[in-house]
């Protein structure tokens, strides 16, 4: 039988992290971690309302609708919170095969080895082609 959950806020606790919480995107089918980004209350609410991942870009200081330029959107299949309600896990369907702006399926395509960084994945797309401006 499942353990009862202690009463906590009904959603993420955005009072922590200066209003920005880490959000992990995980492939809903394979469990592979695709990326880490940040969400604020507005991006979280839009994600729930639309079913598409929306993050907060710390560098641009605005909402980042994943795939708005590339078309590689993330369809949210489930949302989880950690025990402290200060980390968000999105289980997603990654449209276009790649979550990383560098063209890899996952942003975690490099492994640290004694010899240095080793690329352990193959590019899915050429960023020069996708992000033409």
Structural write-up:
The chain is mainly β and 133 residues long. Helix content is 11%, strand content 34%. It contains 2 helices and 8 strands, in the order ββαββββββα. It has helices spanning 41-50, 127-130; strands spanning 21-27, 33-39, 54-57, 62-65, 74-81, 88-94, 110-113, 116-119. The strands form 3 sheets. A 4-stranded mixed sheet has the order 2-1-6-5, with helices on one face. A hairpin with a 2-residue loop joins β7 and β8. The longest helix has 10 residues, at 41-50. The N and C termini lie far apart (55 Å). 24% of the residues are buried.
Question: What characteristics describe this protein?
Answer:
globular, 133 residues, mainly beta, two-stranded antiparallel ribbon
Q: Shape, please?
A: globular
Note the beta-strand portion.
Answer: 25-35%
Q: Can you list the strand order of the major beta sheet?
A: 2-1-6-5
What is the H-and-E element order? EEHEEEEEEH
Radius of gyration: 16 Å
With helices defined by DSSP (H or I, 4 residues minimum), what is the helix count? 2
What about the largest sheet? 4 strands, mixed
Mean pLDDT: 92
Q: Strand tally, please?
A: 8
Summarize the structure.
The chain has 133 residues and is mostly beta strands. It has two helices and eight strands.
